[in-house]
Amino acid sequence: MNNSLQSENFLKLISKHLPDMLWAKDLEGNYLYANDSICRSLLMATPNEVTGKNDVYFAKRERSKHPENEQWHTFGELCANSDLIVLEEMKPMIFEEYGNIKGELVYLEVHKAPLHDETGKLIGTIGSGRDITEQIKLEKKAEKLAYYDQLTSLPNRQKILLDISKKSPTACAIFNIDEFKEINDFFGTNSGDKILQEIANWFLKLDFTTYRIDGDEFAILFYDDYPVEILKHNIENILSLFEEELFHIEEEHIHIRFSVGIAKQKHNLLTKADIAVHYAKENKEKIAIYEEKANIEQTYKKNIALATSIREALLDNRIVCYYQPIMDLETKEIKKYETLVRMVDKNDQLILPLDFLSIAKKTKLYSHLTKEIIHQACNTFKDRNESFSVNLSIDDIKDLTTLQEIIQTIIKTKTSNKVIFEILESEGIENYDEITNFITQVKALGAKIAIDDFGTGYSNFEHILKLHVDYIKIDGSLIKNIDKNDRHKIIVETIVEFSKKIGAKTIAEFVVDEAVFNMVQKIGVDFSQGYYTGKPTKIL
């Protein structure tokens, strides 16, 4: 046996048993050679049957075996002509074809090259293929985890960012569910998840690709260059349709409402739509459109900067407490103080709470501020005889971690019999169970309860009766002009009379001058607080 024949047989032996598919075809696409792997995996034939036949032949043969399955495809039927494209160099290609004996989708990495005879004449193509189905499945699974929301199966925030960068949409609308936190709190997170799935299914009925970009936010991209007025009109139509929907939680039927932000920008599209939807929620608007001239983004950046400043101030011990005296109108002595928070900036300038507390609440820094204020106030008064009050929000009371730290701090500093917790009458005081549980716990330790800002907004005498408060702080808007406004005087007299009957003490806020001071004293208010009786100061 000569060396040439030996080499040829050796190569055939190797190719026959290789796991990779190997083949050679003539210029008309007929097989000159096919190894066992391609015959077994794709062509469903023996090597002897293959020579002289093309992919279409085997495709039709396999199709005839499965006439009932309209989706049946084979590698050969869909790719027969691809081998006629002669490549100048080896290049990988991926095919997604139905090609195996079960009619399953298989993925092949295919390499092809021109086939020449001994004289250099082009006579066909040679190719190799490798089954990379498992690799592609893993990649697709990873892609689904990275780019799709697991609860609703909608594309997620990462996917919308990718699509914006690659597809260049002209506009974006973000739909934020109004008061979704209340739905979760009232019905439970499982019911909340069910609502999200129902909303996702509703969006899928639309002709838009919808994304779930946050817990309670969905988004749509637009690719037609519509004017802003048309976009807004289209969104209004979507909202009108949506408002007709009823969602079901057990036996209850609930309506869901959205706030929507629209941006039509070339740069930072999603960010600007985010800014618009936040603007809509803050200003109680159904739809807000991002406009550069409205300086919304500057406000957004300012808020972010302020949130950063609050966080840094907490870390640098630049959150400080001032204390405003509260005078006993019977003895004219200062027996109580209200704790008021201030932030010191990096230039040692004082920033009043009006300028930063609302941002703290929105960024979830408020609980950290509350803990810091409680810590400072309790340590300031632990060795003093006066009482002191601290403002608490409903969110503080509902936060078990904050509540636990408050109780631990007043016990540790032995100030539980000196502290008065002020709760805003206008801030969700109807959450009786949570507030009653809190009041029961702290009163058992000796603490007192005050209702702040009473007399305006949602004032309700029933609240006071149910909560068994010790002090009623009359809102400053009723007090500051009481010497000139008879209607305010009548309201304050009614509050004072009611308080005496239930055994609660009254505190007048915003006592700004002698005339107001004399009037609240004459009416029978128990305590006076305001610039006339003392400005907020540090207590060392």
From TrEMBL:
| Domain (PAC): residue spans on this chain | 88-144
Report the GO molecular function annotations: cyclic-guanylate-specific phosphodiesterase activity
Q: Where is the EAL domain?
A: 303-540
CDD domains recorded: EAL, GGDEF, PAS
The cross-references to PROSITE patterns, in alphabetical order and at most eight, read: EAL, GGDEF, PAC
| Highest taxon of the lineage | Bacteria
Q: Where is the GGDEF domain?
A: 168-292
One Pfam family this sequence matches: PAS_4
Query: Mind telling me which SMART domains this protein's record contains?
Result: EAL (SM00052), GGDEF (SM00267)
* Protein name from the UniProt record: GGDEF domain-containing protein
